[in-house]
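thread from #wetlab-drylab

HS: before we spend reagent money on co-crystallization trials with adenosine-5'-diphosphate, can we at least see a predicted complex? here's what I'd submit
DV: go for it
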Amino acid sequence: MFAKILIANRGEIACRVMRTARRMGVATVAVHSDADAGALHVAMADEAVRIGPAPAAESYLVAERIIEAALATGAQAIHPGYGFLSENPDFVEAVEAAGLVFIGPSAKAIRAMGLKDAAKRLMDRAGVPVVPGYHGEAQELVVLAGKASEIGFPVLIKARAGGGGKGMRRVDTPEEFSDALASARREAKAAFGDDRVLVEKLIATPRHIEVQVFGDNHGNVVHLFERDCSAQRRHQKVIEEAPAPGMSQEMREAMCEAAVTAARAISYSGAGTIEFIVDATEGLRPDRFWFMEMNTRLQVEHPVTEMVTGIDLVEWQLRAAAGEVLPLAQEEINLSGHAFEARIYAEDPTRDFLPAIGTLHHLGFPETLPGGAELRVETGVRQGDAISPFYDPMIAKLVVHAADRPSALAALGAALAGTKVAGSIVNTPFLAALAADPDFAAGNVDTGLIARSQATLTALPSPEPRHIARAVLAAAGIAIRPGAADPWDTLAGYAHFHAPAKSIDLFVGEERVAASVSMADARHARIQLEEGTFTLPLSDASNETALWPGHVSIFEGVHAHHFALDDPFVRAETAAIGGDAIRAPMPGLVKIVRASAGSRVEKGQPLLVLEAMKMEHTMTAPHDGTIAEIANEGAQVAEGSVLVRFEEE
Ligand code: ADP
Ligand code: ADP
Ligand code: MG
């Protein structure tokens, strides 16, 4: 086994790899950008090396810097995690040329699967069922449009270099083909520097079921059963589980066998995933699954497989890379219970899942779950850390395991409700709504479920007067004596000379609410709002609340209500944002402008496309109006800068 390895990644996956390395007695080296100098993965590692400035292209994607860091620290092998350089065969070759071991498959295997079109041709030859489609070299619009008609609409255009759901467009009619192709190409070019595409049949009632495979350098290949990742939004996984609901023994055997065949066809070594698309129109049937792609790395959702098999996949990766034989044979690998993983992101589901940033002023996870269910929290951040615009805005993965699917689902709900975040907007209420969805609960999940129910799944309760009262009570504490251990000593003290009333003003959304607090008795406070008077126990001031700069947050189950305190700084900021303008929610590039100064627009009309975090975000008119000013195409904009300003009506 290696004495020391370098982890060429950041965030939760870097931390997760280090945990196993440490348990195995392997020393760890972290690499980091300037933005991550104080990050958890750096703190966890035995040694850390700075590799460049914040942008990934100047740090986590610079192969030479990472290899230099490994050589300088005496690391013998490099674990790439997922994303970044994990599926880059040139990196693998450079690592090996430097005399180091790449913890993953060979460059040759990665290359064979790296481009979806070539991979599909290869799998077809190996006898693995492949989605019908055009996987050839020709890229002219007329050829592709012709192939689409031959395949039959609806079709899916996919970037051949694609990943993370990017560069993919569904096309329902021949008329839409040309625009969809242009848009897919634009996104593919920006994300992968390769705008070539393939066209394939769009599978009806699609379910995404993938098989975890593992190979060693001695010709052994096994599978670790399937994961279901059908709960997706824009082709990105949201909640994953193992095993797949409704899976029959016959179908499982057919899929796992096809996966092992696929891995053997490229003499695969290390952890890999064969992704299949399944037509679930008539339930799961062994003749209705097709190879989609292979991910030649550890997958984000690998923990659900670990939970149901009891196998540590990172340990197996290290062993396979060190030349050992796989620890278990196929018949020794068993399934036990049911596991779910939910990806908690800094994003705003109510604004079409716009990625968010911010400092996690409050971050709390449950310690245990009811009913003896197992919980694993995979995270790369701590309270006080920031979600920056530079990297994937994932905050944590909640992984639960229980005896059966209903208990595991209940455990997932409890884990989400016990997760409290303030300082950035998070998707936990959406995840909880999805987990509670009747179709999801019944295992009737196809990849369109979220889109069909988006409005219901993203609906949020408005704060009610009782929430505001609790916020006022919590805020009164800091307003009276900042930093006091028990602010209620102070307020109770006032009661000795005259009826105390402390006014607290805060913002409920844009609206300013005036309140006052007084002591009802030694243990209760009276909070006066326009809507009525509330008497709350003083203990409510700390229970399920978080105070953070300029704000107070109230937690109730999976929901959080955040209120800005009315201080002059907050007021100035609110005034600046409140104007009749659309501001950039994050730094980005203005890709397309669809309106001009002086034009009259209707509510909901797309005005421009902002590319941020490698995704396109369409900004629409919030109301009818006339445009006074609009950003220029190609402009790089800072967060908060005005993209569109409306004429005063
Ligand atoms: P998974 O099935 O593991 O979720 P994805 O394809 O969605 O696989 O990608 C896994 C992770 O890698 C995600 O965090 C995604 O943002 C990132 N990722 C995927 N493709 C790329 C790429 N080409 N460059 C950088 N990051 C990528
Ligand atoms: P990526 O590399 O971005 O992960 P995939 O080829 O794995 O690309 O596809 C991502 C997702 O898109 C799948 O999980 C599935 O939901 C959907 N998808 C892909 N191919 C098809 C298809 N032929 N029909 C229907 N949905 C598809
Ligand atoms: Mg995929």
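DV: The two ends are 71 Å apart (CA to CA).
HS: ok that's useful, forwarding to the group
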